[in-house]
Amino acid sequence: MKRLRAIAFGLSIFAVAWVVTALLRDVYGESEVVADSPPFVATSAQIERGEYLARIGNCAGCHTARGGEAYAGGRAVDTPFGAIYASNLTPDKDTGIGAWGSTAFYRAMHEGRSRDGRLLYPAFPYPNITLTTREDSDAIFAYLMNRVNPASQANTPNTLRFPFNNQFALAVWRALYFKGGEFQLEPTKSADWNRGAYLVQGLAHCGACHSTRNALGASVAGHAYDGAMMPGNDWYAPSLTVVSEASGADWSLVEIATWLKDGATPKASALGPMAEVIFQSTQYANNADLLAMATYLKALPSAEPSRTSSAPTRLVTQRNSDGVGAALYAKHCASCHGENGEGKADAFPALAGNRAVTMANATNVISIIIKGGFVPATKGNPRPHGMPPYYHLLSDTDIALLTTHIRSSWGNAGSAVTELDMVKYRNALGAGL
Questions:
Q1: What's the pLDDT at 432?
Q2: Pick from 299, 326, 352: which residue ends a domain?
Q3: What is the CATH number of the domain that holds 384?
Q4: pTM recorded for the entire structure
Q5: pLDDT tens digit sequence for 232-258
Q6: What pLDDT, on the 0 to 100 scale, is given for residue 234?
Q7: CA torsion sign, 24 to 26 to 32 to 34?
Q8: CB-based contacts of 413: which residues, under 8 Å, 6+ apart?
Q9: Residue 226 sits in which domain range?
């Protein structure tokens, strides 16, 4: 028995040593990538294609600070673990990627590792972008090096809390949750489906927002595209598989593609973070790629909603039955959205039958009432109408009653929003105003 215990102890020590060695190898085992040999020379076709692909990936969305130079970095990506600041992607040799080669750039895209071997944080969505082919990576690199103006701007240090602010912890995370690999065609699927899967899963990284994450910020296996709260909890990225949220199962391919291009259709309007994605990214996609993405999204397996809102409190239901919510709607909302929530074509969306209004998670409709918002300005919708903020006009009780009225009138069957919900939402929205 002692001999068996000694063997088990020895094996345990060996296993721990092997794991630690593997993690240390991930942190320290990769050296700096030297310049390309022979030097990378971009073609005009690569540069043009790279500009298009950078749009699809919405690279500027994170790597351009508000009011800053394009791709010069400095924008904070807020996470539950602290802020990560996007890096300088301009061809400046001292502070940007001017000294990089295409191989170093591909390693960053494919492996999440910087030119000097340092591990990158997955706020840069390399768990998705790893699927990008070397050809497309080279094209994006060609665009950044030849079309973007160099900007001398040092990278802003991250402000992550311990233990998330060290490379060893990041190596542990990668060992648990990251595996690199280029996209593999599914031979049983159509060319459009495969192209759409390549873009949605990879460069467009839709799952980075729309998939459930665990406590360590990793996507949960088996829960792709099933909806998730955004970092900071101020917006809910709806499920792309639940019909009552944002599934395209009952939409035509043209309807999905039009929404991705224009940001507004008779069925839905893009608001919040998705409005920014459409404004900066998908409106520039060509029709073939839009239809390919639509093909993939429409084919996602449909699921029944699994989330439920909190039950209505007696106060809310009683006062709603007294017509308080209806009175608030008539005063503040009916002039744009119609007396019966029917909306106005090409101007203000209908609220009756609007799944963005009735889905179980009410965060987005509350956020829009509090903070307002705009659909994106696009070629197909060049003069979008906006929603003004009401944080300064309505109390938490008013918003709870108004939201409950909207979610339960004109055939809508959304659950009530309570005053207790509003305390949670107001804090999460950072709108203690």
A1: 45
A2: 299
A3: 1.10.760.10
A4: 0.87
A5: 668 999 999 999 999 999 999 999 999
A6: 80
A7: positive
A8: 358
A9: 191-299
